[in-house]
Write a structure and sequence with these properties.
Layout (H helix, E strand, L loop, with lengths): L7 H21 L5 H99 L2 H13 L3 H14 L6 H14 L3 H14 L6 H14 L3 H14 L4 H16 L1
């Protein structure tokens, strides 16, 4: 290859161009001092390390979420099973309760039937016995219900006694006990009627003072205070020295204090 000969200026310029090119190449290649490279490399390593840590944390969190989801699903399934079991038990208990209620109702009906049978039997026995008893025995049989606190039965039996034996020595006692049976069951009007029959039908009997006093007490219980006062005054007027008269005076004094 032939060419034009180099001049000395050109020979001098070549090294300068080469040096300039090398410098430009170094600049273009990002050449810089070594301290800068070390700092940049360290920062990059730190970023990569931080990224790796974050990725590990994310992976651990995802595992925890997955485990929690599985636990929740398992717990829900267990709760559903438990709820189903409880519902089954409740249905079973409800069935047993209804069965027990039915049995109780049937038992109560049987008890009532037995009570009615016993009452009918006692009434039949009493009626058949009264037919052959003398008056005193019949009265003792009728008044035994009163002594035992069976006031409704006593009231019925004593009424039957008076229907059979209206004029015996104890007929006034029977009539008075009818009033007492009514009084003890809260039938105060029925008691007043029975006590009045003692006064009207057995005027010479020894039960009249008691009947008048109790008629006054029964009248007070239904708040018929004028009638109550009249009965008390009758006791005091007719039987002034009796215990019933003393009690009647006390009742009148109590009534005045209330008024």
């Amino acid at each position: 290859m032939t060419g034009r000969p180099f001049s000395p200026r050109q020979a001098v310029r070549l090294p300068r161009v080469a040096l300039l090119g090398a410098a430009l190449a170094m600049a273009a290649a990002g050449c810089a001092p070594s301290g800068y490279y070390r700092s940049t490399s360290s920062s990059l390593d730190s970023l990569l390390s931080l990224q790796a840590q974050q990725q590990r944390k994310i992976a651990a969190l995802e595992q925890e979420i997955s485990a929690t989801r599985e636990q929740v699903q398992a717990s829900r399934a267990s709760s559903d099973t438990r709820l189903s079991e409880l519902n089954g038990r409740m249905d079973m208990l409800q069935g047993k309760l209804e069965e027990s209620g039915l049995r109780f109702t049937q038992l109560a009906q049987k008890v009532e039937a037995v009570k009615r049978m016993a009452a009918d039997s006692a009434r039949t026995t009493r009626d058949s016995t009264s037919a052959v008893m003398d008056p005193d025995e019949a009265f003792r049989a009728a008044s035994s219900d009163y002594a035992a606190g069976r006031y409704p039965l006593a009231r019925s039996a004593l009424t039957e006694y008076l229907n059979r034996y209206p004029d015996t020595e104890v007929s006034d006692d029977a009539q008075y006990l009818i009033g007492e049976s009514a009084y003890n069951t809260g039938d105060f009007r029925g008691a007043i009627e029975a006590y009045r029959k003692v006064v009207e039908n057995y005027q010479q009997g020894d039960m009249v003072p008691k009947a008048l006093l109790k008629a006054g007490m029964a009248s007070a219980r239904i708040k018929d205070y004028p009638a109550s006062k009249r009965y008390y005054q009758l006791v005091i007027q007719r039987y002034p020295k009796s215990d019933e008269a003393r009690l009647a005076r006390e009742r009148l004094l109590e009534a005045k204090k209330v008024q």
